[in-house]
Amino acid sequence: MPVEGGSSSGSASAARHPKQKRKAHSLSIRRTNSTEERPPGIQRGDMLEGQDSKLPLSLRNNLLDLFGQIEREFENLYIENIELRREIDSLNERLTGDGQTIEGGDPTKGALKTKASHSTSQLSQKLKTTYKASTSKIVSSFKATTGSRALCQLLKEYMGHRDGIWDLSVTRTQPVVLGTASADHSALLWSIETGKCLLRYAGHAGSVNSIKFHPTEQMALTASGDQTAHIWRYMVQLPAPQPPPDVSAPCDDDQDSSDREEGEVDGEGPCEVPTVRVATATLKSHQGVVIAADWLVGGRQVVTASWDRAANLYEVETSELVHTLTGHDQELTHCCTHPTQRLVVTSSRDTTFRLWDFRDPSIHSVNVFQGHTDTVTSAVFTVGDNVVSGSDDRTVKVWDLKNMRSPIATIRTDSAVNRISVSANQRIIALPHDNRQVRLFDMSGVRLARLPRSNRMGHRRMVCCTAWNEENQSCNLFTCGFDRQAIGWNINIPALLQEK
Length: 500
Known about the structure:
5-stranded mixed beta sheet; disordered N terminus; elongated; alpha+beta
């Protein structure tokens, strides 16, 4: 704040005056604490009587008592030091009388040298201990990285989208393919083994935010920013598996992935594959962005979640709206259905998630859960009686459907958590983070592994979603991010559980 010149100089002089005053006061105390300069018969309080002090008398007396105690302690230490020196001198005299010599010829220097060597050995031992501890930490970090790469190996990269990928899913029927939903207004189907793009859906006029496959038929459900959800059919034919590349031959794969241009993609572009542009059914009752959608058990109904703070339940055959699920105070972020029961869970930016029960046609109950302090980014069912919720508050909570008053496990992370997934057979939770990490935990909250991430491996931007595939006696985890690529990982479950 600007001030006038006179007031500024006055304040400066006022600021200097207390410093000089405190300095003079400290000097006076230092002088009074010296026993050699104190005149006999004059007490400490009498010496400070005439000094100008703003302290109350009781406070001054307490301070003087404390200083007196400190002085007495130093006097006692001084006396003890003198006595110890006398004992050392007497011991040195005895040793000299016995004919033993002390290194250096000076007894005092010899004792001091012994003491110094003792302290030096202690310091050396402390440095060795610290060095061993730091070295063990470095070695353990290398072991963790090596073990993580052995447990989680990169299977394939799927590149062809021209914008960030929000969601991905694996088909439940044969042929098993991978589906990705992107902000480039398209959804792509991929061959898991070869990484080749098989089909492109281009029926949406906005970002495709979610993709889920029908449990028994070759149909896909996509949610979009154009305020609609589409149901569309697909027919794909898997390509023949390609032979492994010759690792001895030079190739362009050694290029650092971080050096690629943003528009550069590998493999066939989406324009070079068959394209579906017309939906079998269009669900359009929302007044905002449809952020997610999922099939109810049996595949006869679907549920959608929107930024208009509502979730809708539709009939697949007629595309008619059956129920509108309202109650959230802010935009919805995700919805998920139970694999075997007519249960729906919706998550929202209002820091809550809701459980909707449609098992009784006449009663549609709802339960609200307030276990997070920030946006609940996703909440998913497991094969058992559990719900796992992730949030921007950097926590993941595991809930029991039979008693959801409090979570049975809480996982704390160092970054916001996006759309999580839980493996059906092994019940392993995969957490995608804003900081590009993907971590694996069990249902009790114990950390199992972290997917490798480097300039040549992993995502370069935030990871948006994860999805599991446990077909054919193998366990694959798929991740997608805003770096326009999806990645398939082979997870060694037996080794993972053995490390646990």
